[in-house]
Amino acid sequence: MNSQPTDRPPASTPEPRGAKSLMIVLSLAMALIFFAAAIPAPIRAAWDEFTLRIQLQSEPQSASPAKLSDHEIEEIANLPAQQQAERLLERVVNHYDGALELIGKSVDNWFGQLELQGQLSSLLTTALNSNDLRVRAAALEIELAGYNLPKRAESADNLIERIRREPSARPWALWMLGVLGNRGVETRRAFVTLMDHRHDPDEQTRYWAVEGLSILGTDETVAPLLEAFRSDPSPLVRERGGCGLAQSGMLTREQRMRAVPHLLKMTDDMTLDDATRGWVFQALRDITGASISAQPDAWRAWWAQHRG
User: Fold this and answer.
1) DSSP codes, the chain
2) How many whole angstroms separate alpha carbon 197 and alpha carbon 182?
3) What is residue 60's predicted lDDT score, i.e. its pLDDT?
4) Model pLDDT, residue 44
5) What percentage of the chain carries pLDDT values higher than 70?
């Protein structure tokens, strides 16, 4: 059976080596020397183009300046709200200068005009996983516009009422309450409501309460996230607590670093199951950037040298 792909030509049969082959090679070499002397610049340019490769190990190389041009800003202004949000969020994800500011100026005009699906939904997921908290914040602003939740106390009132009355709406409402609180609306009430549901008998309710705390991202959310990571009976909720401390959500690096001493204590907790204990070491690596294996003593030595 022929193992070659059908879109490739078969390999040619090599000719016998001999004087004829040698003469051909010498003739080609002389021709190249002649042309190189006659027109060196075009040959050199062609060779450079042939050999130029962008290596994955090289320094970052911009394709063009990462900045919104005046022409593009004018073009975006004439687009429908959905396309404005998509274009600007894509630019924000790619760190274009001016895109964050333009979202800040435009987002109030998008309320009630966005559909959080398709391309915009995918971009929001990407933005919420960005390593730049400003990009995540832009995604949260668009989430509020998409769900038509203005940054007012009334929006928090409505979410809290839905959490109380509609168990099926709790996952979404708990998360959105964290979003609203992160953007400065009824932050304390959001924290209290999320904490009220942290120990709910329903696993999904606890899961989304933890997600909401992660998105809320205040100093006081660190302790309940640690508690969820260490003690929740559900592995899904424990993992969410660990992710909220390590990478996801809106905690800053400084806030995450405050969890490190508590995570170090957890490395010695032999009551933890193997999966959770493994997540503890992964959380330490994510927060600190240190490449240390699952060795508590090595982590304590590292922390003794690097803590502020």
Assistant:
1) ---S-TTSPPPPPPPPPSHHHHHHHHHHHHHHHHHHHHSHHHHHHHHHHHH----TTSPP--SS--B--HHHHHHHHTS-HHHHHHHHHHHHHTT-BTHHHHHHHHGGG-TTS----HHHHHHHHHHHT-S-HHHHHHHHHHHHHHTT--SSHHHHHHHHHHHHH-GGGHHHHHHHHHHHHHTTSSHHHHHHHHHHTTT-SSHHHHHHHHHHHHHH--GGGHHHHHHHHHH-S-HHHHHHHHHHHHTSSS--HHHHHTTHHHHHHHTT-TTS-HHHHHHHHHHHHHHH-----S-HHHHHHHHHHH--
2) 18
3) 73
4) 61
5) 82
Residue entry with tokens 């049969």:
13
Count of Cβ atoms closer than 10 Å to residue 290 Cβ: 13
Does the structure show a pLDDT above 90 at 28? no
pTM for the whole thing? 0.81
Where does the pLDDT of residue 199 fall: very low under 50, low under 70, confident under 90, or very high at 90 and above? very high
| Structure confidence at residue 52 as a pLDDT band (50, 70, 90) | low
What is the per-residue pLDDT for 20? Answer: 47
Longest CA span, the chain = 93
Q: Which domains does the chain have, with CATH numbers?
A: 71-146 (no CATH), 153-306 (1.25.10)
- pLDDT tens-digit readout, 174-183: 999 999 999 9
